[in-house]
Amino acid sequence: xxxxxxxxxxxxxxxxxxxxxxxxxxxxxxxxxxxxxxxxxxxxxxxxxxxxxxxxxxxxxxxxxxxxxxxxxxxxxxxxxxxxxxxxxxxxxxxxxxxxxxxxxxxxxxxxxxxxxxxxxxxxxxxxxxxxxxxxxxxxxxxxxxxxxxxxxxxxxxxxxxxxxxxxxxxxxxxxxxxxxxxxxxxxxxxxxxxxxxxxxxxxxxxxxxxxxxxxxxxxxxxxxxxxxxxxxxxxxxxxxxxxxxxxxxxxxxxxxxxxxxxxxxxxxxxxxxxxxxxxxxxxxxxxxxxxxxxxxxxxxxxxxxxxxxxxxxxxxxxxxxxxxxxxxxxxxxxxxxxxxxxxxxxxxxxxxxxxxxxxxxxxxxxxxx
Amino acid sequence: xxxxxxxxxxxxxxxxxxxxxxxxxxxxxxxxxxxxxxxxxxxxxxxxxxxxxxxxxxxxxxxxxxxxxxxxxxxxxxxxxxxxxxxxxxxxxxxxxxxxxxxxxxxxxxxxxxxxxxxxxxxxxxxxxxxxxxxxxxxxxxxxxxxxxxxxxxxxxxxxxxxxxxxxxxxxxxxxxxxxxxxxxxxxxxxxxxxxxxxxxxxxxxxxxxxxxxxxxxxxxxxxxxxxxxxxxxxxxxxxxxxxxxxxxxxxxxxxxxxxxx
Lengths: 370, 262
Fold this sequence. Notes:
Shape of chain A: globular
Helix content of chain B: 25-40%
Membrane topology (chain A): Multi-pass membrane protein
Keywords (chain A): Cell inner membrane, Cell membrane, Membrane, Sugar transport, Transmembrane, Transmembrane helix, Transport
Number of helices of chain A: 16
Number of helices of chain B: 9
Transmembrane segments (chain A): 20-42, 54-76, 82-100, 107-127, 133-153, 210-232, 263-285, 297-330, 342-362
Function (chain A): Part of the binding-protein-dependent transport system for D-xylose. Probably responsible for the translocation of the substrate across the membrane.
Oligomer: heterodimer
Protein name (chain A): Xylose transport system permease protein XylH
Shape of chain B: globular
Strand order of the largest sheet of chain B: 6-9-10-3-11-12
């Protein structure tokens, strides 16, 4: 055997650039800078970066972030959940049926909805780990089943697919305000009084700031991102997530409870979808059967833009959150810039393709494959 | 030396049937602490089935397993690992996309308390990983280097170091050298030697007689699901082992034509 030396002449030192390249967040950071630069130049004067405009794209981004974090952790563990969009519609409808149609207290309606949806998430996970079928197919089935029920149930009990009156039912409810309220109103009032942000100049809102506070939706988004990031990078469970997606069999041989990890993450994506739904219905005041359409794909695209590998085992929550931000800024930015909105889909397809190609290249860098 | 001690693992008359297929028809092997017991056999001889019964993946149809003198029933691999029997599989040892340090502690993550949370102690994990790798003669760029950048031999070595670090008393190595080059094979064999000297019992599965002769203390040959016998080092020549593996067929003629390189 060769003598132990402190360095191996065959291992080249890698450059800082190469080292930075193998961080999963890189694509997200570069993309975010590019997107902001682009819209500052193109739509800098359109009000996109005034208080109201910022609130507009930040809200959309926060929505994407909530479901992207769930999809990100699940994708790193090697699975997909295509039922997220349907779950959003279904969860919103459950809140409306329990809280409005049945007239139960809103906090019971919301808690019950969380229990039902997370159970459905657990069933998704159980079917996937028990049958060994691709989660792509299993959750595609759930996508249709849940969408069907979120049309059928309100049709049957209310004879319509849109149930309103949630705002009134949620009035003064402690749990509903955790999802639908806004915080920091005094600060925004002060900012308005100081002339830092705009105020309404006429009507019954005269003197009120154009942005009255931070919606709880954003607080949830931030909370879920921090939770997901710490869980993934700083805990034992996080190591199990990487292991389950990297090579499930190798992980099992050293005693990682792979099935438990996957089932819990299916429950977490269901949780994220339900948070999304409850924030949405408490803000709009109504639930509709078609809510959340295509959200599952948007979540997956945000995660891929954020640097995660579709094959699992690699990715980052911060990256996914930046992917969601890019998504939100571009979708709303094209509107501010006056670009035809159908071009957003073209952009989406192109960026998705670029991200996947870049990620495959980065995977080779990490593993040293040629 | 080996025969004065009690064996750490005794496998007595192990039979394993898969439906109508008799994979093992009565295999008996004992393994002593601090020895390298080589299990040789051609493809289909039952080596894999045999070590899978030892590591808890399969339950034997007949026969008994004594671990440290007491009869043991392993329901799953986890039981065997807890008892101190660790197995390193050829392809499934490591996860390429994860760092060496994350791989090393996979399933045994060190925790530290930060306020109300129990977090993965990366500092400790990184330090221990670097120390252990140094002991095994692997120079890492850093503990966060991905396993995918290591060579096949280094991956086997990391897996062996991991098993030993977490208290394996019996280390089963499933064909650790069969996919490796000359130099990497030498590294793995020297790792086996280091591990044996710490008092761990090593079960080394291979079909390469030269690799077995390099480190083995005793040699058991399996053929068609049966033990053909166990020999001590110095009692048997490589040619005899080779012939036994081939089922007693004379390989002399073939060996002559190939210049003795089989």
